[in-house]
Amino acid sequence: MSSTHPSPAPASRVLVLNSGSSSVKYQLLDMRDERRLAAGLVERIGEQTSRLKHSPLHSGGESRERTGPIADHEAALKAVAEELAADGLGLDSPELAAIGHRVVHGGKHFTAPTVIDDTVLAEIERLIPVAPLHNPANLTGIRTARALRPDLPQVAVFDTAFHTTMPEAAARYAIDVETADEHRIRRYGFHGTSHAYVSRATAKLLGKDPSEVNVIVLHLGNGASASAVRGGRCVDTSMGLTPLEGLVMGTRSGDMDPAVIFHLMRVGGMSADEIDALLNKKSGLIGLCGDNDMREIRRRIDEGDEQAQLAFDIYIHRLKKYIGAYYAVLGRVDAIAFTAGVGENAAPVREAAVAGLEELGLAIDGELNAVRADEPRLISPEYARVAVAVVPTDEELEIATQTYALVAKKS
Ligand code: AMP
């Protein structure tokens, strides 16, 4: 007797996990239409005051919150699995095709998303010395998810992968080669999933194939980085061995003379850990003016606060230098794309970053710049030679897309 049952729909859901040291962010997407089914965040893992916020997006239902101690990542993922199950979206569903993990550091080795096996886990572990804050947390997330669904493909999507196309001239520091190689010191770059997504989306906005356009992407969030993308491939980026290099950020200094560190050690009597904390957590905008939120900084500037104004000016000065540098690296620029929290929302930052660069073909239309929207949009006047765009980033969608492409190819 022939079966009248239709064959089951191929699994099309991807769970994206972004595991930090004390947090897990997640989204469940259906890749048939890129619809978000659920999203949430577990914060303060390991503390008494842990919090899980879960939004069942597929049903448009109210967000739910759990508070109280969540001991570790395993408990956090179990709680997430329970919330998803309560919405009929459990991790045991046959519709779940894969779990995509954000992994911050993939070194030189991982140039593309990779299905995780024991060898891949060992390699991510080997990279801990160059990503001591991030890779251990990412690994914990992967191990916990694997324990929950050992049969399911788990994919690592690396923040560094998009930047592995950088030529050696851009990726190497001018230090002794043997020392650099022994300690794997080179410029890796980060925010790669965002730079990949935004550079492609910018080409689409221009009605072109990514291979046809040169784009400078300015990812300006609390962490911030710039990239120069030629024909869809990254040729330079502002973060380096770690996310500390480059632009002025919310709490990171970005570029400075490395001798500042020796000075702080010798004259300031500070330890390596103290300087690490100073430059990563107490510098940038927060170090300069006590605030790292651009909204607050703009509010203070409007009230005539000179310290906030100086912090803003230093931030813009550095940003402009990178626009100029990447213009020179690319030779021809078709578009500059602003993205992430500051880039998508702070019109004064966009205006100031591009001001005075008319000779480079850059200009902004004040009215277009003031528009608030969730869609990618152009903010340059029609006459401008270089398009200036605001392109909301979507790292979760990019991770899900890369994960799904890999598992769909394999099945
Ligand atoms: P992200 O790391 O991409 O989430 O960006 C976070 C940062 O974006 C915050 O620290 C703020 O500085 C900035 N931000 C978010 N919303 C706005 C807004 N409406 N106007 C200006 N800056 C904003």
UniProtKB/TrEMBL annotation:
Pathway terms, separated by semicolons: Metabolic intermediate biosynthesis; acetyl-CoA biosynthesis; acetyl-CoA from acetate: step 1/2
Family: Belongs to the acetokinase family.
Residues annotated as site: Transition state stabilizer: H191, R252
Region annotation (Disordered) ranges: 49-68
Keywords: ATP-binding, Cytoplasm, Kinase, Magnesium, Metal-binding, Nucleotide-binding, Transferase
Protein's name according to its UniProt entry: Acetate kinase
SUBUNIT field: Homodimer.
Xref: HAMAP family: Acetate_kinase
Name of one Pfam family that matches: Acetate_kinase
Necessary cofactors: Mg(2+); Mn(2+)
Domain of life (superkingdom): Bacteria
Major localisation: cytoplasm
An annotated Gene Ontology molecular function: kinase activity
Binding site for Mg(2+): N18, E395
UniProt cofactor note: Mg(2+). Can also accept Mn(2+).
Binding site for ATP: K25, H219, L220, G221, N222, G223, D293, M294, R295, G341, V342, G343, E344, N345
Record function comment: Catalyzes the formation of acetyl phosphate from acetate and ATP. Can also catalyze the reverse reaction.
Keyword Lyase included in the entry's annotation: no
EC number: 2.7.2.1
Annotated catalysed reactions: acetate + ATP = acetyl phosphate + ADP
Active-site residues annotated for this sequence: D159
